[in-house]
Amino acid sequence: MTTTSAPFSNHPLVLVDGSSYLYRAFHGLPPLTNTKGAPTGAIYGVLRMLKKLVAQYQPTHMAVIFDAKGKTFRNDLYAQYKANRPPMPDDLRSQIEPLHALIRAIGLPLVEVSGVEADDVMGTLALMASQQGWTTVISTGDKDLAQVVNEHVTLVNTMSDTRLDPAGVVEKFGVRPNQIIDYLALIGDTSDNIPGVPKVGPKTAAKWLAEYGSIDELLVHANDIKGKIGENLRASLDQIPLSRALTTIKTDVPLDFGWAQLQLQSPQVDTIGQLYQELEFKNPNEWNSLSTEQTKTVASVIEASASVLSPVTPVTYETIVSEEALQRWLAILEAADYFSFDTETTSLNYMTASIVGLSFCVEAGIAAYIPLAHDEASPQLPRDQVLLRFKPLLENAAKAKLGQNLKYDKNVLANHGIELKGIVYDTMLESYVLDSTERHNMDSLAKKHLGIDTIHFEDIAGKGAKQLTFNQISIAKAAPYAAEDADITLRLHQHFWPKLAQEPSLRKVFEEIEMPLLPILSKIERTGVLVDAAMLGEQSQQLAQRLTELESQAWSVAGETFNVGSPKQLQTILYDKLGIPVLQKTPTGQPSTAESVLSDLAERYELPKVILEYRSLSKLKSTYTDRLPEQICAYTGRVHTSYHQAVAATGRLSSSDPNLQNIPVRTEEGRRIRQAFVAPAGAKILAADYSQIELRIMAHLSSDKGLLQAFASGSDVHSATAAEVFAVPLEQVTKDQRRSAKAINFGLIYGMSAFGLAKQLSIGRNEAQAYVDLYFRRYPGVKEYMESTRAFARQQGYVETLLGRRLYVPDINARNAQMRQYAERTAINAPMQGTAADIIKLAMIRIDQWLQTAQIGCRMIMQVHDELVFEVQEADVEIAKREIPVHMASVINMAVPLEVAVGVGDNWNEAH
Fold first, then answer.
1. Is the pTM of this model over 0.90?
2. Cα–Cα distance between 371 and 576 in angstroms, integer?
């Protein structure tokens, strides 16, 4: 589409959900008929709402959009879509044709597009207007459209006179506009027959999205959700993608009209008079005012309106199956300054996946796919020969490469003996550095930033247990999907890079932290870690025995047998039979058996304490002692996790399959699991851990003299804090005073309130508040830092780490007090946690550089929070033990020096 000056720049583009208007008028207003008995109430109601809307906004351009007859693409996705809806009443159906005729006669553009819904057309028009900086008002009562709200798009409801801007969406739904799709997918929609997660209502969905940010991240932590609701979530894993697809409004609907066709026209006075007479409405001249400025056409409007509204750039995707085409594309790639590429593979497991095909792009809209190992008998070039031809290009460090999540592609190429070099741009990381609070998968990025609804993998592979692997997909379906991946990646880079280039601090984070870390994480992943399967098997047996004992103990306390793992049965035992007081209820009004509630009850009652231990051990058994042996790679004999750079909003790494960062270190059972992470013969495990890094960062950021002195003295910082707060000599600090000081030190980092501190220390709230007040009197710089950080976040909408990483807090000015307070706590903590994340990433880069030149038998095998774990040959342990903490401590200069604790042992637990 040609972008020119806005044809409605001085007036908003007004989009009317005609279908919504029609139903609301029919059901919301008293029935009305003419003397012939023909129903006219819905027509009358719609006209009243349209007149009010036009008078209020005086648009020059507008569209009244109705659902077209027939099925839509959503019916193809899900045959039961809207299956529960009753047929349209005859009294309503008979009013549609005269209503449409009247709307056209009035001079209001009317739009119907087959195969999609009115929402999709409105979403497409709104996005296109937004991309040119134009304001759009969408008049609807449909909550689904909240997902398209942004700084340029507002929803209005003429029936209730309410407006929804981004802050209003948060106020009404408890989630941001970019979370509405996930919100709707979780709660479902009975009117549209969209399945949600059973028993998940608006409050639970908003709570989960506030905690995890997106469904993608929620599903990563699905096993952490307790109780029946967690069971429901896990049981819905296969269905959630479908629900999300059904609730997602398309914003790339091809439209065969231009802006000129959305311009208001002069009313057709004779036609309006005739229709008003038939309907027996009064005052047919009420629309004559539309013939004023709103319908005037100027040359700039005509010029701007000349193009057809088509958000889809023409594409040319080539399938390469001949030697001639292969040579031509190799020459194109060699000549390009950089190119985007993607691998299509047999599996998401990077250690076992093999390449099915390659796609490339050097210019937006022009891409190619090379099928190499599809099962079908169609002609394909030999995979080994093609990869051999591409090997010099892919291994050329001077040839810049671009991709989306290239760490995966690098790992898979390694399976074929190719070491990918020249990784300069990764669109997932570009998006992450620009705004870590968003979703960074390609489909989401394309929809949000390019207005393109991409071909989803499920579209060509199917869903659930019958989903095809890529080699099973026909080349005819696979080629457009694969070529589009490379094309969209290039377009996203062209969208993101100018934004990064304009922000020197963000560009530095991208170029000096995230991109250099990518190949290092790949190396760690492929190295893996050795685990003792036999030891884990013994631990599983012991845990099973202990779980049986706890089950019997729970039955004894309850006085009857019951399913210890059932929240519903536990609820009955705790509250109905034993009469234990209800501390908290679920959103549905049932007494809660959540872990936080049981923890409070466990201080006074035996059964909650038993259940907590049962749940903890059961999770360890299912997640680690049972599962880890199954995750040992047959080729390497090791466990290979996946590290994620673009998940945690603060910049921290996360890991999955297995999640190595959730193994407890403070419990005996957790430490025993760490004992199973062992060194091979002739080597040791070395663990290097930053000591109290976030407290040290707090001291630096706040420049508080007392806190700086506490670290400078070399004494225990918690004892030093206790001495200050309780005004006693350092040597007279008691264990309880040190414990209280530690709780305050760490609690303030995470924005803990006096209420939270009271709960943690088992003291009264007034006493806890007195501790906090005293702490701030002793460390006024800390309080000043916290207040100035809140103020900065309110003004800018983000905070920053020491190295310039930007951390957005979109709810910092929310009208909802709970959301605002959570955002304030995040704003205080994020610079510390984010700086700690940056520091350990820099340490990994620095140590990797050192290892490449040190020529010693040492390799990095894990990163867990503030800890790096290495596998070191016994002969090189001393040099590694000496040099690694030096490199870790020197990656950044702060007012408080970093300290690194180092341990060595035959297993991870011994080294920690």
1. no
2. 63
